[in-house]
Amino acid sequence: MNDSRFNSLIPPQPEVLVEIARLLKAENPDLARIATLIKSDVALYSVVLKSINSPYYGLRVSVTSIEHAISLLGLDQIYNLVRLTILRNTLKKTGRMERFWDTAKDVSQLSLNVAGKLRLQLNKDDVYTLGMLHDCGLPLMVQAFSGFREFLQSSPNFNVTELDKQERESFGFSHYQVGARMAERWNLPQHVADAIRLQPQMDEVLSDKVDTGEKTRHLLAVLALAQDISSEYRYYWRIQPAQQLEQLQPALRFLSTTDYDYLTLKERLIEEMA
Questions:
Q1: d(CA 22, CA 136)
Q2: pTM of the model
Q3: In the chain, fewer beta carbons within 10 Å around the N or the C end?
Q4: Distance from chain centroid for Cα 86
């Protein structure tokens, strides 16, 4: 793998994120300065207020103050929100890929719903982040290689393992590798980066044939179900065909979920999306 090529593929962290990260590492973080930085960016400002006012927190009165939102959400979640928002906006600059981001949004929300319905004790920020960024290497590959978009469009029936192989053979590395490296360089949790990288080996990972952490395994199992539900709900710019129930067995076994329970859950979540 050519590290110098990766350096040219992966966008650097913007100054505002670097500054917020620096402030958060301080023994006594300057909350006023953090709030000022967030308020200086419309996207960050709106995403923080949207998050705190979501039904998840069940607040009776809407929050309109960034300072108040920071105190309620906590610094760790604020940093996760800021980082994910900036990263998504940075990747959007690689070109018009609206359907790609619509898919990412669907999968991230469905991942949260699946984890919640199955009562899994997972960090919801990790679940959402993987759902949003599991294919984040795609826009970077589109930007780097003039023929990559056409390659994807001519390869709609590749499963994830075959796609990974074909990308390596054609371009030197796969978008799963690129996405994982970017996650690491943007200081996302290692188990999230590992989940992005290990998607082509999901069956082996969930069968304990690949050495990785339990957090990564749980995230991958939830992602598999979310992708399946998303593909059933709408036709989207996907890079692999919808999975058959048989192909989901490693994830269902790992999550101790029967076929019947999953199909019931799937039907319920599709109805909620309609």
A1: 25
A2: 0.83
A3: C
A4: 13
